[in-house]
Design goal:
FAD/NAD(P)-binding domain; alpha/beta; four-stranded parallel sheet; 3 helices; single chain
C-alpha cells in the first residue's frame, strides 16, 4: 500500500509529538511513526508513569489521533530517496522529520 502525507515524523517523543501536532493544527496532512513506546522512554518506563490512569503509550497515541495525526506503528526504513517503508506500507514524495531521540544513526548510502 502506498500513502502520502505533507510531512511524516519518525519518532513520537516530545519533539516528534510537538512537530506533528503543530503541523496538523496548520491543516497539513501528517503521519507519525513509532516503533515501540508511544510518547518516549521516560514517560513509559519511569516512576511518574504511575500517575496516569491509562497507559502512557495509549494516551499519547490517542492525543495525536485526536489532533488529526495519522499514527503508524512499526519500524521505518528509508528504501530510496524520498521513499520510506514501514512493513507493507510505502510513503513517497513527502517531507520527513527524524525525531527519534538522542542516538543518531545514518544508514550507509542515505545521502547519495
Amino acid at each position: 500500500m502506498t500513502q502520502s502525507f505533507d510531512v511524516v515524523v519518525i519518532g513520537s517523543r516530545v519533539a516528534g509529538k510537538s512537530i506533528a501536532s503543530g503541523l496538523a493544527a496548520a491543516d497539513r496532512t501528517i503521519a507519525i511513526i513509532e516503533e515501540d513506546l508511544w510518547g518516549g522512554t521516560c514517560p513509559n518506563l519511569m516512576a511518574f508513569k504511575k500517575t496516569f490512569t491509562e497507559p502512557v503509550a495509549e494516551q499519547s497515541k490517542k492525543s495525536l489521533e485526536s489532533a488529526g495525526v495519522t499514527t503508524i506503528t512499526g519500524s521505518a526504513e528509508f528504501i530510496g530517496k524520498n521513499t520510506l517503508q514501514i512493513e507493507d506500507t510505502v510513503i513517497k514524495e513527502t517531507q520527513f522529520v527524524i525525531a527519534t531521540g538522542a542516538r543518531p544513526f545514518l544508514k550507509e548510502g542515505i545521502l547519495n
